[in-house]
Amino acid sequence: WGANITAIDLQGHGKSHGKRGHFHSYDSVMDDIENALQKLQREDDSLAVFLYGHSMGGNLVLNYCLRKNPQIQGVIATSPALRPTFKPPICKTLPAKILYPILPGFTVPNGLDLKGVSRDHSVIDAYKNDPLVHDRISVQLAVDLLESGEWALENAHLLQLPALLIHGDVDSLTHHDTTKAFAQKSASSTFVSFPGAYHELHNDIDKEKAFERIAEWLDARRNNTGI
Predict the structure, then answer these.
(1) Sequence-distant (≥ 6) Cβ neighbours of residue 84 within 8 angstroms
(2) What are the start-end ranges of the H helices in the chain?
(3) How many angstroms separate the CA atoms of 59 and 149, rounded?
(4) Any idea what DSSP says for residue 204?
C-alpha cells in the first residue's frame, strides 16, 4: 500500500541549526514535532500519519504523544531512550544539575560506545566516517532526557494512541526492560523484543526482521481503520 516518509533533523543535530548536541529547550522540540505534523496535515489531511522515533527520538515521540495526544494513527519507538542501560553516577548527574540553570548549553562527550550500535561492522565504520555525526551532549539535554524518560514511564498508562515499541534485548545503550515496562503500563502499546539485537535495530544484521515487524503492525492498523 506504500508510504511517504518525511524526516526532520533535530535541533543541534544533522543539518539543523543550533549548537551541536543542544536543544533550545525540550518544549521547543515538542513544538518542532507539532509543526512538522501540522505541515503534513495541511498538505493532505487525508493521510494516515504515524510518528516514528529511534533512541532519543523514541523518547521524544512517546513524550510528544503523551503530552499532546495528537490526531494521528499511531506511534513507533525503537530502542527508546527512556533510561540508559546503566544509571549515571552521581558524580556526573550532580554537576549537570548544578550547571543546568547556569550554563545549560555546556557540552561534554556523550560517552557513546560505538560497539553497542550494531553487530554490522560496516555500520560502525560509516558512523565513524559520517561528518554529520558528533559526540556532544549539553548538560540541559542530558538532564531533560533523563527526566522526560522517567516522566514518560510514570505516565505510560495515559497513552491513548496505538504504539509499537521495539527493543533488542542486549542493547547496551538504552534499557530494554524499561521499554517493556512502559508497554506493560500502556494498554494501547505492543512490545516486541528482538533476542540478541543491538541498539540500532534498523541497522543491525537482522534489520529485515525489524522492518517486517513494523510493516505487519502498520498493516494491522490499516486493516483496523480502513486506511
Answers:
(1) 146, 173, 174, 175
(2) 26-43, 56-68, 90-99, 121-129, 139-154, 176-185, 207-225
(3) 6
(4) S
The separation between CA 28 and the C-alpha centre of its own chain, rounded to angstroms, equals: 16
The Cα 16–Cα 217 span in angstroms is 31
Cell numbers representing residue 133 in the block: 555525526
Burial of 115 (0-12, 13-18, 19+ CB in 10 A): exposed
Alpha carbon 69 to its chain's center: 17
Residues 6+ positions from 137 with CB-CB distance below 8 Å? 21, 22, 107, 108, 109, 110
Write the burial class of residue 160 (CB in 10 Å: 0-12 exposed, 13-18 middle, 19+ buried). Answer: exposed
Do residues 113 and 173 touch, judged by C-beta distance below 8 A? Answer: yes
- Answer for the pair 221, 162: CB distance below 8 angstroms, yes or no: yes
Q: Which pLDDT does position 91 carry in this prediction?
A: 81
Q: What is the pLDDT of residues 36-51, one digit of tens each?
A: 999 998 988 888 899 9
Residue tagged 499511531 (cell numbers): 74
Q: What does the DSSP 8-state code read for residue 202?
A: G
C-alpha span between 12 and 6 (Å, rounded): 19
- Helices marked H in 69-203: 90-99, 121-129, 139-154, 176-185
The conformation of residue 13, written as its DSSP 8-state character, comes to S
Averaged confidence pLDDT in the chain: 94
